């Protein structure tokens, strides 16, 4: 493929991602079940939303053509376009995060547990304020959730899949709220994401982490212990 053609392809993907809007708060597809009763869904009073200091830019409320469909109209691989959209949403969070915690002490500046906890709490408050209007699906859109299911599906079959599901079940904490912008509970275990699943998901920048709880996927800012988004029934 000529260089000019490659440039045209990447430019088209970028335009699709930047121009794409979502309907915030849209429900998961009809095949998705409710979160298991063993997962805490009620909000802890300590998770009350702080007053906004920086406002995250939220997508337009209007319905939009799915990224994959937009990609097809301009001859771009729709699967690549959806992953590019995910990367753009993660990058947007990282940009917001950088502004929100500007001037905050680094967690690496001290080995004193009390100072680390204080710095982490301060960072959490600033990030949660900056994205106080964030909703489920802002990062894990229905398209991205469906794409992740397809990426993980082959790894959940056969003996390897059974082993992966067993690891997930054994490591699952029971007190994590499925609530965007909530704090990941202090003292809750950090579940292992089996290597064969993790390698099939897009790489995240530090300090973001995937965490699988039962059948569901969380995106967590590890340093601030903030739940950024979640996708239900990723494991099938």
Describe the fold and architecture.
The structure is a single chain. The chain is mostly helical. It has a domain at 67-231. It is 40% helix and 8% strand. It has seven helices and three strands; from the N terminus they run H-H-H-H-H-H-H-E-E-E. The protein has a three-stranded antiparallel sheet with strand order 1-2-3. The longest helix has 23 residues, at 78-100. Residues 1-11 and 18-63 have low confidence and may be disordered.
Summarize it.
The protein has helices spanning 3-19, 67-73, 78-100, 113-130, 142-152, 158-171, 195-198, and strands at residues 208-213, 216-221, 226-231.
Q: Quick check: average pLDDT?
A: 79
- Topology as H/E string? HHHHHHHEEE
Number of helices: 7
Structure summary, number of beta strands: 3
The helix-and-strand class reads mainly alpha
* Contiguous uncertain segments of 5+ residues: 1-11, 18-63
Order of strands side by side in the largest beta sheet?
1-2-3
Shape: globular
Biggest sheet descriptor: 3 strands, antiparallel
* Radius of gyration from the alpha-carbon trace, in angstroms: 19 Å
The residue fraction in helices comes out at 25-40%
**Measured distance between first and last alpha carbons:** 38 Å
Q: How much strand content do the residues show?
A: 5-15%
What is the element layout, followed by pairings?
Blueprint: H1 3-19, H2 67-73, H3 78-100, H4 113-130, H5 142-152, H6 158-171, H7 195-198, E1 208-213, E2 216-221, E3 226-231
Antiparallel strand pairs: 1-2, 2-3
Helix pairs in contact: 1-3, 2-3
Features:
three-stranded antiparallel β-sheet; about 10% strand; mainly alpha; 7 helices; about 240 residues; disordered N terminus
């Amino acid at each position: 493929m000529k260089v000019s053609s490659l440039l045209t392809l990447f430019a088209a993907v970028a335009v699709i991602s930047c121009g794409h809007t979502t309907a915030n708060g849209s429900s998961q597809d009809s095949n998705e079940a409710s979160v298991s009763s063993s997962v805490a869904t009620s909000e802890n009073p300590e998770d009350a939303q702080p007053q906004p200091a920086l406002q995250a830019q939220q997508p337009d409320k209007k319905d939009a053509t799915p990224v994959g469909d937009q990609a097809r109209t301009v001859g771009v691989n729709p699967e690549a376009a959806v992953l590019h959209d995910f990367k753009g949403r993660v990058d947007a969070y990282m940009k917001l995060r950088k502004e929100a915690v500007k001037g905050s002490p680094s967690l690496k500046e001290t080995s004193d547990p009390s100072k680390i906890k204080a710095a982490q709490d301060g960072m959490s408050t600033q990030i949660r304020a900056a994205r106080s209007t964030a909703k489920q699906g802002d990062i894990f859109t229905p398209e991205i959730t469906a794409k992740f299911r397809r990426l993980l599906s082959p790894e959940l079959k056969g003996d390897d899949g059974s082993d992966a599901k067993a690891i997930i079940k054994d490591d699952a904490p029971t007190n994590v709220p499925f609530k965007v912008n909530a704090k990941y509970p202090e003292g809750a275990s950090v579940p292992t994401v089996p290597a064969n699943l993790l390698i099939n998901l897009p790489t995240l920048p530090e300090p973001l982490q995937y965490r699988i709880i039962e059948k569901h996927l969380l995106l967590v800012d590890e340093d601030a212990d903030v739940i950024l988004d979640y996708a239900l029934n990723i494991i099938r």
